[in-house]
Amino acid sequence: MPDRQRIHRARKAPLRGLFVFCLILVAAAADATGRPASDAIATAHPLATEAGRLILEAGGNAFDAAVAISASLAVVEPYGSGLGGGGFWLLHRARDGRQVMIDGRERAPLAARADMYLDAQGDVIPRASIDGPLAAGIPGTPAALAHIARHYGRLPLEVSLSPAIGLAREGFPIDAVYRRMAGFRLEALRRFPAAREQFLVDGEIPPLGQVLRQPALAATLTAIAESGAAAFYHGEIGARLVAAVRASGGIWSAEDLQAYRVVERAPIVVHYRNHRVVSASLPSSGGVLLAQMLNMLSARPLDELSAVDRTHLLVEVMRRAYADRATYLGDSDYVPVPLAGLLSPAYAHRRAKTIDMARAMPSVAPSEEADEGRDTTHFSVLDREGNRVAATLSINYPFGACFVAAGTGVLLNDEMDDFSAKPGAANAYGLRGNQANAIAPGKRMLSSMSPTFVESEQRVAILGTPGGSRIISMVLLGLLDAIEGRPVEDWVARGRFHHQHLPDRIQIEPGALGTEAIGDLERRGHQIRQLDDTYGNMQAILWDRRSGEVTTASDPRGIGSSALMPNSSVPAMRQSAGRIRLRAGRRLP
Ligand code: DON
C-alpha cells in the first residue's frame, strides 16, 4: 500500500486518539531528558547557514529556517538544487513528536512515455535525459517550501524567503565550487541562452569573487513570497515556464504545473543497536536500503571484527541492498513494491547468511562505469525547542538540465535521468532499474536522497549528504559512526567506500583504505576502483540529550559551514534581529 494511503488511513482509524496519546507520551519522554542547549545549522554554503540563522533569530523555528535555507541554497548553489528541482524534507516536530517526510520530488510530465529517451532501435539516446528541457521533471521545491511554511513554520513566506531574495537581487561572490561545477557543465550551459546569460560571463566561467546577481530569480522568489506557490504553478511564471520548455523541445503543459502536489509520507523507521533510525521513504530508495543494510548487520554484527573484515561485511551488505533497489524499487503510488518483505528482519537475516567472510559474492551482469556528478545538497537544522529538519534537495546533475526558462530565473532539473530509461540500462550514476522505475506520466522517479535522524535515549543525530548513488552508503557509514559514539566531525570527515552491486567494484576515496587492506580485499575476490577524487558533502548535527550539548560539522570536502546559537544568547540575538538588514533591503520583523 502506498505510504500516502497508509497515512490517510491512520488519520481515520478509530484508534487515532490512542495513537496520538502514545505519540505525546513518546515526545514527553524525550523532553524529560532536556532540550538542546543551542540552535544548530549545518549547510553546504555559508550564506545559506547565515540565512537560517537570521530566520531563527527573527523568532522562526527550525521549519522556517529550513525554508530560508532551501531558498538561499537555490540562489548560491545553483548547481545543486533550486526552485526548478525537488527534494525530501524530513521533519520532527517537538510539540507532538510528529515525524513526516515532505515529498517534494519532481514528477514526470503527463506527456512522458516509457520509451521517450530511446531511439528507433530501442537504444538509449545519450544525454537525452540530462541536457535541455526534455530532461526536466515537474518541480516540487516551490510547493514544498510553501507547504512547510504554512503547516509547520511560524513566519510568513515573505519573511523566510527574504534572505534568498536579497541574495538573488544583490548577488553573491563566485566561489571555487561554483567554478568547478560550471566547468563540468560548460558546454551545456553555453548551449541554452538564458542559462548562459544567468550563469556565465561572455560564455565563460565567471572569475573567482565576481558577484553573481540573478534579478529574474529574485522576482520569482518575490512573487512566491507574496502569493505563495500558486505564483509559480499558475499565472505568469507558470505560463513562461511552459512556453520556454515547449519552445526548446520539452513536453510540459500548464496542467502539469497545476496538478503538482506535495505528499506527506511516513518515514522509514528501523531499529538497530538500541537506536531508532528514521529516513526517507519511497520514492527515495534511501530509507529502504538503510533499513535492509542495518537489518543485515543485526544478523551479522560488526563488533569485534578486524578493520578489513568490517569493510568486507559492509561491502557485501551494500551489494545485496543495492541489488534489491534495481529489482524492486520505484514510486509505490504507481507500482506495487513488496515493501513489507524487503523491510522484514527475517528476509535480511536470510540474505545475511549468504555472506561469506572469505569471498566476495560476484554481481552477475555487465558493468559500466558511471559519471561522477557532484552536486545536490543537504542541510540539517535543530532548534532550541527540539524541532529538527534533515533535507536533501536536488536538480540532479550539476546545473540540472542547464536550461533556464527565460524571464523566470528558474534553472530546470534533469531528474528524469533518475528513471530507468530502459530495463537494465545504467543512468548517470551507474544505477540500473526495471519496470518498477520505468517512466510513466505523473510518476516520481526513484531517488537515493537519504535525509536521516538517528535517535536514542542518549543522542539525536541529524545527517545527510549529496552524492548520487553513493548517498546511501555514505549515510550508512555516517550513522554507524554516530551509533558507535564517534564525534560528529568524524562522521563527515571519514574516508568513504561504496559498492552498489553494479558495477561490481568497491569504489574507494583516495586514502580511505590502506594498501594492505586493499590487497586483502582483492584476495577475497573484490574488484577495486580507487577514485581520483573525494565525494560527498555531509552536513550533520549531534545533540547529546543528557547534557543538552549540541555539536555540528560540515564536510571538509566542501565549503559549507555550521552555526551554533547557544540558548543563553538568544534574548540578545532576538533583540538585535529587528536591526538586521537583509541584502534585499528588507527588514525582518
Ligand atoms: O535523487 C537522486 O538520487 C539524485 N538525483 C541525486 C543526485 C546527486 O546527489 C548528485 N550528486 N552527486
Q: Per CATH, which architecture of the domain at 268-372 and 451-554?
A: Orthogonal Bundle
| CATH top level label of the domain at 268-372 and 451-554 | Mainly Alpha
CATH superfamily of the domain at 268-372 and 451-554: Gamma-glutamyltranspeptidase, large (L) subunit, C-terminal domain
Roughly how many Å is the radius of gyration? 23 Å
Q: How many strands in all? A: 20
Quickly list its features:
single chain, 589 residues, binds 6-diazenyl-5-OXO-L-norleucine, disordered N terminus, 7-stranded antiparallel β-sheet, 22 helices, disordered C terminus, alpha+beta, Serum Albumin, Chain A, Domain 1, 6-stranded antiparallel β-sheet
Structure commentary:
- It is a single chain.
- The chain has 22 helices and 20 strands.
- The protein is α+β, with helices and mostly antiparallel strands and 589 residues long.
- The chain has a domain at 268-372 and 451-554: Serum Albumin, Chain A, Domain 1 (Orthogonal Bundle).
- It has a 7-stranded antiparallel beta sheet.
- The longest helix is centred in the middle third of the chain and has 22 residues, at 307-328.
- It is globular.
- The two termini are 45 Å apart.
- Residues 1-33 and 569-589 have low confidence and may be disordered.
- The structure holds 6-diazenyl-5-OXO-L-norleucine.
- The site of 6-diazenyl-5-OXO-L-norleucine has 15 residues, from loops.
- 6-diazenyl-5-OXO-L-norleucine is lined by residues 373-376, 394, 396, 415, 418, 447-449, 466-468, 471.
